[in-house]
Amino acid sequence: MGEARTICALVSLLFLVYGHGSMMTKVEATSKVHIVYLGEKQHDDPILTTNSHHDMLASVVESKEMASELMVHSYKHGFSGFAAKLTESQVQKVAQLPGVVRVIPNSFHKLQTTRSWDFLGLSSHSRVNALHNSSMGDGVIIGVFDTGIWPESKSFSDEGLGPIPSRWKGFCESGKRFKPRIHCNRKIIGARWFVDGFVADYDQPLNTSANQEFLSPRDANGHGTHTASIAAGGFVENVSYKGLGLGTVRGGAPRARLAIYKVCWNVLGGWCSAADVLKAFDEAIHDGVDVLSLSLGYPPPLFSDTDERDGIAIGSFHAVTKGITVVCSAGNAGPFSQTVLNTSPWILNVAASTIDRAFLTPITLGNNKTFLGEATFTGKEIGFRSLIYPEAKGLDLNSAGVCQSLSVNPSMVSGKVVLCFTSMTLSAVISAAEVVKEAGGVGLIVAKNPSNDFYPCADDAFPCIEVDYEIGTRILYYIRSTRFPIVKLSASKTVVGKPVSAKVAFFSSRGPNAKAPAILKPDIAAPGVSILAATSLLDRFQDDGYVMNSGTSMAAPHVAGIVALLKTIHPDWSPAAFRSALVTTGWRNHPSGFPIFSEGSPQKLANPFDFGGGIANPNGAADPGLVYDMGTSDYINYLCAMDYNSTAISSLTGQSTVCPGEESSISGVNLPSITIPNLRNSTTLTRTVTNVGASTSIYRAVIEPPFGTSVSVKPNVLVFDRKTKKLTFSVTVTTAHQVNTGYFFGSITWTDGVHSVRSPLSVRTEFLQPYTSVN
């Protein structure tokens, strides 16, 4: 969800990019399109399924011709249903037809590198990592749901790739400025576009938007091109952004193939229709993708897991039960708690972290003190110039120096550098820069909340240097201490490694999970700040076809690329096994041993609600030792524990489901993490692990109990041999607290001396007060 310039998208979803966009908000318009959900398909003939959908609709609208005109999509591969334009009276009639689970209105979501892969331990120069052990993901097919693709980018060259996998059933679809014969190759093996659901409800031609758009897989926004190249872009040498971050850019699985599903459209920052997203899932399941990457989301309040208005939850369930790993961004509403999106337990949910790289920009004051800010300033050094901070008269002296409402004039600013303060993000930086430039200023210093994400000006020859409030305040004190304050602004420099340390990004959405607090989300974190990757040539921030973006939108395709590598090494693993491997091996500390922090107000040590199991560790995940596996039956147990309607569960899963009479426990779902949101005295739950390492091995439990609790594991030794591949253990957590508390954190780690299989443990004590009547 975000970018260095940052973005958004919709399903009816949002892009999950940070900065130049935000996560989607629901479109305020009366929907004509309705999704008629019929559950699991009844047979494998897609033609018969589609005909049955038309017949069903025709029985209500009284003619097959009218039914064809009103039909928007027929879902016939992964599940059964259709989207159609219906009046309210027709909706009531369709809802009464046999086999109809529910009819709901269409909805919308908004859209939320040269260093990041080396940071993750996947250097192309090493021959002993998961990148090379997996043949760089050769043969794996990654599907990307986004704004399409700019096919001419060098990142999508098919040089050196072999034939398209024979199992591939998809194709490339023609459209405006997109010809399959020219624009598809052995890298881009599929390119489709889905717009009917969007157009039916948007009620305006797409070309009336302020931004250009193509009725084809071609990407006018740049978001889809960026995410696709992060996941599977090929090697491109000597790429930089305005001279910064110079190096070889590539994706996580550079030999994987790409299947592009354009579901988001370049309107108001990027929007996607739930009807179109469901159709894309349906087709992707049929086409034969291995991994799906979605940098989209629906903002709180979250829909239930069985509600089709969240096209991602329903579509991803069907994909995961077919063995397709679905990777989604966590959202860009951090650092606030309970803001994480895409929380269904079958989805691999990704938070955003920074990397060990910064673009440091010296600010030298007239008193010879130098401070370091961040920017992408690549112009000539601004020699010593006058430095001002606008101050107002009256009660609020600082009102004139607020970035988003900066009040200056040419006589005050011409030829000078301006300091302003803001609690906002991208819009404040852009508006302040425009005001200062228009008034003849030569530079801008923005003081803001401390974080590593920053928002460069469109003109990188004009310095917009960002500092935290502490440095901003010291600069302000200097201005007020002398009659003629001056400042020198030097060009930005790329700094990699020490002393720069990775953190959970300020904007990354946080847990706990608002829908199901016992299901830990996010699962894992990955780089999502200032990621250099390909973009559309229509992107106004692009530099020779590449741009730096930030957001969980950038983090999700990092993990999709990692899963593609793991899929090559472990082709028989389930989506749950891939998630388990990532969660239990995630980095909680830097290589130096220093713990990872989480940006916020103030910064703090990162906990599982910030980054799940930690920052993704691809090499560790390739050899995790043990995995916590799950299948459809586990997801059904979860749905029952959520107390969803048995009919809705049966329709979703395609099998008759009767939930057990006794209350199920969500904490008992076989996740690689344990979250207990309401511990009272003591509770016991179970987990089952599968040995994927040496056939004969012995693991011992190492417990880090959360503060004020005692934790026991039985048995505390697990012995695997050639016959014993799976073992179950119980975990008992007892609290010493006698009052309601916040969350405390610990872990349970199984180790055999080689592997450390760590499960995050999050516990909150909650005692109900006895009811007392008041007379």
Automatic annotation (TrEMBL):
Location(s) in or outside the cell: Secreted, Extracellular space, Apoplast
Keyword presence, Secreted: yes
UniProt cross-references to CDD domains, sorted A to Z: PA_subtilisin_like, Peptidases_S8_3
InterPro entries registered for this protein in UniProt: Peptidase_S8/S53_dom (IPR000209), Peptidase_S8/S53_dom_sf (IPR036852), Peptidase_S8_Ser-AS (IPR023828), Peptidase_S8_subtilisin-rel (IPR015500), Peptidases_S8_3 (IPR034197), S8pro/Inhibitor_I9 (IPR010259), S8pro/Inhibitor_I9_sf (IPR037045), SBT (IPR045051)
SUPFAM superfamilies the UniProt entry points to: Subtilisin-like
Signal peptide, first to last residue: 1-21
Residue numbers annotated as active site: 146, 223, 553
Keyword set, alphabetical order: Apoplast, Hydrolase, Protease, Secreted, Serine protease, Signal
Domain Subtilisin-like protease fibronectin type-III as annotated: residue spans: 669-763
GO MF, one annotated term: serine-type endopeptidase activity
Chief location category: secreted
GO biological process annotation, one example: response to symbiotic bacterium
A single GO cellular-component term on record: apoplast
Stretches assigned to the Inhibitor I9 domain: 33-111
UniProt xrefs under PROSITE patterns: SUBTILASE, SUBTILASE_SER
Organism domain of life: Eukaryota
Name of a matching Pfam family: fn3_6
Gene3D superfamilies: 2.60.40.2310, 3.50.30.30, Peptidase S8 propeptide/proteinase inhibitor I9, Peptidase S8/S53 domain
Peptidase S8/S53 domain residues: 137-586
PANTHER family per record: PROPROTEIN CONVERTASE SUBTILISIN/KEXIN
Similarity comment: family membership: Belongs to the peptidase S8 family.
Task of the protein: Required for arbuscular mycorrhiza (AM) development during AM symbiosis with AM fungi (e.g. Glomeromycota intraradices).
Protein name per UniProt: Subtilisin-like protease fibronectin type-III domain-containing protein
Origin species: Salix brachista
Lineage: Eukaryota, Viridiplantae, Streptophyta, Embryophyta, Tracheophyta
